[in-house]
Amino acid sequence: MRPIALALVLAALSGPALACGPDALGVSRTLRVGTLGGGAVGLKTYPRTLPLAPGEVVLTFDDGPMPGKTERVLAALDAECVKATFFMIGRNAAAAPRLAARVLQEGHTVAYHSMTHPNMRHLGVAAAQANIDKGFQAVDEAVYGDAWNEPRAPFFRFPGFADSPALDSWLASRDIVVFGADLWAGDWEPMTPDQELARLLARLDRSKGGIVLLHDIQPRTVAMLPRFLRALKEKGYRIVHLVPGPGPLETRPAPAGWTSETERILRSSAKGAGG
Ligand SMILES: [Zn+2]
């Protein structure tokens, strides 16, 4: 074998370990999220979140996979040896199955965000359930090559955070955890990558970390992500990678005086909350 080929094989075998020196952001810990009996986390919507320590950050990316953009998100995460959770739209996964599968192959958690991203409150319960189930199946067929009765990773995020009591209890009965978010920059709104970066860092400084909502389909997020990850490293934030785990969901309650920001947005806007 020629030396260059040998080097490539060795690099492939050892994975990111060669590149992941102490200067990389890296994953600080993996949190096994219990899904028995379901539950819901994320302070923008629910009065509780994951039991993260101050300075811990969970990265989540919604609405992909999207060719031309998700690859760049994966490259930015790989360059910092970071793992994230991708809430995929079934229709997008079905349209780009190799890209969807690559997200899992690179060690990220693949979760679900419905089949076609409707506002579930505008659908009947049966239609909403069908859309959610189609999303589970389309993502799993793209990522794993087949679909079971239940999603592989029981993590779901409602489009626009528009849940309902009936759908929440239906998901709970299937041991599926609902994810909101603790903070976002609002990357679906018009802003430059620099503005998004500044807004995210300011909000993280206030919240001391949490579950961050980003969109891998948004060019401004793709553009600022490498600088965002560098800034997290420089400011001493630590990345937590979520995977499904056994037992019930463990949570931390919201601070006193909590209200649901997404509920306020959903009631005041026909467009719904971003996400
Ligand atoms: Zn979304």
UniProtKB/TrEMBL annotation:
Keyword DNA damage recorded: no
Pfam families, per this entry? Polysacc_deac_1 (PF01522)
Keyword line: Hydrolase, Metal-binding, Signal
Which protein is depicted?
Chitooligosaccharide deacetylase
What job does the chain carry out? Answer: Is involved in generating a small heat-stable compound (Nod), an acylated oligomer of N-acetylglucosamine, that stimulates mitosis in various plant protoplasts.
Domain NodB homology: where?
55-240
> What Gene3D superfamilies would the database entry show?
Glycoside hydrolase/deacetylase
Q: What family does this belong to?
A: Belongs to the polysaccharide deacetylase family.
Q: Does the keyword Flavoprotein apply?
A: no
